[in-house]
Specification:
372 residues, mainly alpha, Transcription Regulator spoIIAA, 2 domains, 12 helices, 5 strands, 6% strand, elongated
């Protein structure tokens, strides 16, 4: 009887089929050269490799067998291991970089499956966002009842980062957008001799839609990503667990100051964007349409109504809540790795910008049907 503890790696043709190969012996790192020679000698018509008869197997042997199966185009079910080696093989499959990837199924059933998974993910995100919103509303009320929980220093610091630092960018972009709208409007209206109506076009578009939308998009790109990265880094370094260990509430400490800072600064940034957008229209009117600033402002005073300003400003607190909640929620969902921080940061920016645009479109339709 051959002692399996010292027998070298061997293969032989199985008796139950011409394409089945049986392996035996020690398939370990010490016999790596012999393993390579034995694998090269296996016939090309082999369809099943039975490794259940191997006496000793380590990670080097598993890797060589997996690479052999990949070269021969054999699927995982055509490479059979014994039950005692199943755990080792599973670990190697999980960490192997060059294991064959499963081909993506482009069939109708697979497409429905991917659609279902994506829909389930969207619904789960919505449910989590609604729950997180309720939790923050409850704790905002608790903070109002217990002012000692209010973090004034953190709130003011976030107001500076979110609001004051964003003023130059918001003003510049809104000014350019207002100028572009005036240029485009004048190009069309000039054919009808109605360049003066550029005043109404720029004013209504800026006050009702463009100022608040541009501000929300800029703040979503700057602030939501910043909130997610800051809280996510703390989650990765287990600082949030330390906060809970000290008996503090992470929502009170990290989320509420950021929400309050956004609720205060986003309406102010929206007002700045409105003024900058109107200034862009006045500039184009003065230098391209021969409309003096005095005439432009007089026309705007005669035709504009306060409701246009109020409609635009009413959206700012809603967008502030959306940006703050999603940015902080995605930060709290970080799993503890640098890759997770990057993924959640990207997700927060995409979600906030998408949701801001969707809600702005729905609000515009609603205000239009209400004749506001």
């Amino acid at each position: 009887m051959i002692d399996e503890t010292v027998s070298p790696p061997r293969w032989q043709q199985a008796q139950d089929g011409p394409g089945r190969i049986s392996l035996s012996g020690r398939w370990t790192l010490a016999h790596a050269v012999d393993i390579s020679e034995q694998l090269r000698a296996i016939p090309e018509d082999a369809t099943v490799v039975d490794a259940s008869g191997i006496a000793r197997l380590d990670s080097a042997g598993v890797m060589q067998l997996m690479r052999f199966a990949h070269r021969r185009g054999l699927d995982s079910e055509h490479l059979v291991f014994s039950d005692q080696h199943a755990a080792l093989v599973q670990v190697i499959e999980d960490v192997a970089d060059d294991r064959p990837r499963r081909r993506r199924d482009y069939g109708f059933a697979a497409a429905l499956e991917r659609l279902g998974r994506a829909t389930h993910m969207v619904v789960r995100n919505i449910v989590e966002l609604v729950g997180f919103t309720g939790e923050n509303l409850v704790k905002l009320v608790r903070t109002a009842r217990q002012p000692r929980r209010f973090r004034l220093t953190a709130t003011v610091s976030h107001m500076e980062q979110v609001g004051l630092d964003a003023v130059p960018l918001v003003a510049l972009l809104s000014y350019l957008v207002g100028a572009v709208i005036a240029f485009l409007g004048s190009t069309i209206l000039r054919d009808f001799g109605a360049e003066i109506f550029v005043v109404e076009l720029v004013s209504i578009a800026t006050l009702r839609e463009l100022a608040v939308l541009m501000t929300a998009i800029v703040v979503a790109g700057r602030t939501a990503s910043s909130f997610t990265a800051q809280i996510g880094a703390m989650k990765a370094r287990e600082e949030i667990d330390a906060i809970r260990t000290l008996g503090l509430d992470p929502v009170d400490l990290l989320v509420i100051p950021r929400l309050l800072a956004l609720l205060v600064t986003l309406p102010l940034l929206t007002f700045v964007a409105m003024m900058a957008g109107l200034a862009g229209g006045i500039t184009v009117g003065a230098f391209d349409l021969d409309i003096p600033p005095q005439m432009y402002l007089g026309r705007m005073q005669e035709t504009m109504e306060v409701r246009h300003f109020l409609v635009g400003m009413s959206k700012a607190p809603v967008f502030a809540m959306i940006i703050g909640l999603i940015g902080c929620l995605e930060g709290l969902r970080v799993e503890g790795t640098a890759q997770s921080v990057g993924e959640r940061t990207t997700s927060s920016v995409v979600q906030t910008i998408s949701l801001v645009i969707i809600i702005d479109a729905l609000a515009a339709l609603w205000f239009m049907h209400m004749d506001w």
